[in-house]
Amino acid sequence: MLPLNPTQAKWFKKYLPIFGVSVYWLYQLIKLWLAPTKDIPTLESILIFSLIEAAFVYLVVELLLKLSQSSLLEKIKEASSKRSIGQGLIWASVIFLMITFVVNPIAQIVIQKFDISFTAEQLSSLSLFRHPYAPLFWVLISVFGGGFAEETIRCFSLQFFENNFGKIGIYFCLILSSVLFGFGHIYQGPVGALTHLGTGLLFGFLFISKRNLVTNIVAHAVYDLIGVTVALSLYR
């Protein structure tokens, strides 16, 4: 590899993280485009994908952080404290209540869909909570897929864009990443997609407010676990 002069090194350090995040977003769009919209995935496939995505996100963020002589584990260690974990637990409950009683009803109004009966696809998805290993699988999915993977890429995307483009960058990233997060759940129907768009915005604002990766990871993982616990108690 040819040595870089200071100008080239500065440019490389500034734009490579943005390129990496953009590639991840493009991957999400391609995955959504190629995925069948009506087939409900198996719980095993969801778990495998969550673990693969968590490993992929770790490698991408770790490589990008190496540019600043840091590492993801160091960042997590620096952000870890009883306070950050406690705040994550509290915000998980707050966001769950906001999504359940504010965002989801608004999404239903926007979509103008008030039929509370289950569609055939929704009924099929309930089988995901009747799997013999559903509790264990959903814990792993919530922690590694929801908590670690989604919040790690979200928080570092926001930070990267703010570092290079200021407030315009961080809010552009917040909106775009939340829209993609919503589209990623379009298989749950238009209300589900809008609800997850709102979820993405809330977790994004949480990071902008607290600036703590661990708080976001804990909040998202526990938020998912609350939802999973409710679903298991109702449908298992």
Structure notes:
With 236 residues, the protein is an all-alpha fold. It has one domain (8-235). The protein has helices at residues 6-34, 43-65, 72-79, 82-111, 120-125, 134-183, 189-210, 213-235. The longest helix is centred in the C-terminal third of the chain and has 50 residues, at 134-183. The mean pLDDT is 84.
Defining traits:
236 residues, mainly alpha, globular
| Global morphology | globular
Estimated helix fraction: over 70%
Please report the total strand number as a whole number.
0
- Mean pLDDT equals 84
Order of helices and strands: HHHHHHHH
Counted by DSSP, the helix tally is 8
**Computed CA radius of gyration, to the nearest angstrom:** 19 Å
- What fraction strand? under 5%
**Model regions low in confidence, pLDDT < 50 over at least 5 residues:** none
Structural class: mainly alpha
Number of domains: 1
Instruction: Outline the biggest β-sheet.
Output: none
Q: What separation lies between the terminal Cα atoms?
A: 56 Å
Secondary-structure blueprint:
Layout: H1 6-34, H2 43-65, H3 72-79, H4 82-111, H5 120-125, H6 134-183, H7 189-210, H8 213-235
In brief:
With 236 residues, the protein is mainly α.
